[in-house]
Structure formats: structure tokens, C-alpha cells
Design goal:
Layout: H1 14-29, H2 39-49, H3 52-56, E1 58-60, H4 64-73, E2 78-80, H5 83-88, H6 91-95, E3 101-102, H7 108-117, H8 121-132, E4 137-140, H9 144-155, E5 163-166, H10 174-181, E6 188-191, H11 198-219
Helix pairs in contact: 1-2, 2-11, 4-11, 7-8, 8-9, 9-10
Length: about 220
């Protein structure tokens, strides 16, 4: 039995669908205050979530985009708070520059330590990551406790990321952790409110990696 059916979509090519989607986003968002460097990230987030309110709520440290692109091009490591963020990142764009995506949330030593201390794995995973690498990009989309711990470690001068992507979703401490992040003098990309999530964090990394690749094309 032939399971194919006739249909007449607007377009059938993935690249054409994406292009059309971005055109619709630009038309619908209208006037905005984002810079030319920031807007591609905003569009990528809206494209991923279909949420214009979330896109408009994004906030950028003045050096965030530049710092993120530079870190990727330097092959710096990318640390994620959960496996879902890691899975959503286009790995080949990162490894192209020699980078690596790391997530410690399931590591046996992290699980064991979290149980011993009666705390979250996210907190221990951030401690492990910051003890092993210098700089890098920290992409947090799920756990507010991970973002709060990273902020604490920065204040203690035990961590100095090149960029923090802090967009955890939720009701407990999600909004507050983002507010604390914006008080730091460290490059960050975050958003206001409870919204966020792993797809958002991954989308921001993917937008930055595309921009990093575009630099190569501009040089050629």
C-alpha cells in the first residue's frame, strides 16, 4: 500500500521553510531595540519556540555576542547544565573550531556527591566544571540552582566564564537567578521572567556558532 499522499504545502525544502519562517518573524516582531549583532540570536530563539514574548525578553551584556563568537572560534569548551541542552547544540559547528560540549549532570561522582551533601546534582556539576576548565561558555537552560551556583563561584573568584547563557525555566528561583546574573560584570545572555528552557539555551549557542562560521566566510 502506498502511504504517500498528495499535498500542496507552501514549500517542501527545509532551507526554504526556515527562510520563510525568519521572514515572518522579522515582519511580525516589528520595531525593536536589539542591535544587528543581537537580533540573529533573538530570531533564532523565536524560531525555536514560536514565542515572541520570550524573544523580546532577551537581555544582553554589551560584550556578550562578541565574547561568545570569540570563545567558539578559540575552541573553548561549552558546559551545559543538562543533557537536553547538549543534545540540542549542533556539535559539528563547535568541533569545527576544536571545541567540546560537556555536561556533568550524570557523572557518577556528581551523583554520589550530591547525595552525600543532600543537594542538587546541578550544583555539584557546576562545581566540577569550573574546577576543570578556564573560561568557556556555560549554557544553562533548565536548572536555576546551576545558574545560582555559577554566580556564587564567580563572586568567590573560582570561575570566570567567557560567556554565560542563563535561561533556566521554572517557578522556583528561575526569574530571580536571571536577575542576579544581570548584576555581574561578566558577559551574559539571559531573559526576563520565568520562561526559558533547554531549547532556548541550545538555540542561543547555535546562533552564535552560525555567526562564528560566518566570520570564516567573510574572510574568504
Amino acid at each position: 500500500m502506498d502511504f504517500f499522499v498528495e499535498f500542496s504545502p507552501i514549500t517542501t525544502q527545509p532551507q526554504e521553510i526556515e527562510l520563510k519562517s525568519f521572514e515572518m518573524i522579522e515582519e511580525e516582531i516589528g520595531n525593536h531595540s536589539f542591535s544587528d549583532a543581537q537580533f540573529p540570536i533573538v530570531k533564532r530563539v523565536i524560531h525555536t519556540t514560536a514565542d515572541f514574548e520570550l524573544g523580546r525578553s532577551l537581555r544582553f551584556h554589551p560584550e556578550a555576542v562578541k565574547a561568545g563568537i570569540f570563545a567558539i572560534r578559540q575552541g573553548k569548551k561549552i558546559v551545559t547544565d543538562v543533557e537536553m541542552v547538549k543534545a540540542g547544540i549542533h556539535q559539528s559547528r563547535i568541533t569545527h573550531f576544536g571545541g567540546q560540549i560537556i555536561c556533568h549532570i550524570r557523572d557518577e561522582d556528581v551523583v554520589k556527591k550530591a547525595k552525600e551533601l543532600n543537594t542538587t546534582r546541578s550544583i555539584i556539576a557546576m562545581q566540577k566544571a569550573t574546577s576543570q576548565i578556564e573560561g568557556g561558555i556555560f549554557a544553562i537552560g533548565n536548572a536555576p540552582t546551576a545558574l545560582l551556583e555559577l554566580i556564587r563561584l564567580i563572586k568567590l573568584e573560582k570561575a570566570k566564564p567567557d560567556l554565560i547563557i542563563g535561561v533556566p525555566v521554572g517557578f522556583v528561583s528561575a526569574k530571580e537567578s536571571k536577575e542576579e546574573l544581570q548584576k555581574l560584570d561578566v558577559p551574559y545572555i539571559t531573559n526576563q521572567g520565568r520562561k526559558g528552557g533547554s531549547p532556548v539555551a541550545a538555540a542561543i549557542v547555535n546562533a552564535l556558532s552560525l555567526m562564528a562560521q560566518q566570520v570564516d566566510k567573510d574572510v574568504e
